[in-house]
Specification:
The complex is a heterodimer. Chain A contains no helices and 11 strands. Chain A has strands at residues 4-6, 9-13, 18-23, 30-36, 43-49, 55-57, 60-65, 70-75, 84-91, 99-101, 105-110. In chain A, the strands form 2 sheets. In chain A, strands 2, 4, 5, 9, 10 and 11 form a 6-stranded mixed sheet that branches. A 5-stranded antiparallel sheet of chain A has the order 1-3-8-7-6, with no helix packed on it. The relative contact order of chain B is 0.34. In chain B, the strands form 2 sheets. In chain B, strands 2, 4, 5, 6, 9, 10 and 11 form a 7-stranded mixed sheet that branches. Chain B has a 4-stranded antiparallel sheet with strand order 1-3-8-7, with no helix packed on it. The radius of gyration of chain B is 13 Å and the shape is globular. By secondary structure, chain B is mostly beta strands. The chains are: A mainly beta, B mainly beta. Chain A binds chain B through residues 2, 30, 32, 34, 39-44, 47, 49, 87, 92, 94, 96-104, and chain B through 31, 33, 35, 41-45, 48, 50, 55-56, 58, 88, 90, 94, 96, 99-106, 108.
Amino acid sequence: QQPVQSPQAVILREGEDAVINCSSSKALYSVHWYRQKHGEAPVFLMILLKGGEQMRHEKISASFNEKKQQSSLYLTASQLSYSGTYFCGTYGSSNTGKLIFGQGTTLQVKP
Amino acid sequence: AAGVIQSPRHLIKEKRETATLKCYPIPRHDTVYWYQQGPGQDPQFLISFYEKMQSDKGSIPDRFSAQQFSDYHSELNMSSLELGDSALYFCASSLSSSHEQFFGPGTRLTVL
């Protein structure tokens, strides 16, 4: 089942913060976060594992609430380079590495 | 560092033609995944291989087939192409012991 992301789109000024949420109706083992620039490949940001710690990639961090079956991505002091579409991904039921992505959140950072 | 290589990067085909997309995973990666991404959509899982055996299958049409060869490269074969097959096709690779999937640059397929 596809995870649900919110919001669908965010517009920020440089230096502002943003939060992107990813929730699932089924129990999560892990949540993967990717960023994709237009026409380019998704780039891995981080993975949150069940029972694991909050992760960080530069000024981007993420948390995983197993009870709520939700993960949040926190972008702090956003930079122009943060612009792109953020996808969360969860494993399908077979846990073979097949990622089911959310519909994406488009982030635009303006000067 | 070596990345996932995909070829060709762009491909234009007519309806009902066939296409073959190639993927060369990062050296020593044992798992390959194929994803299809339509315009403005999220990547959709098609199929995956672990150690040259199909490990999982997603929403892959019967007109498509794929395999992984002894050198670990993979090919996605697409026949009887339809307009709706126009999309970006990504290959990703990983080590089975890791959760991180590295995506290739993609092949943009346009069906006219």
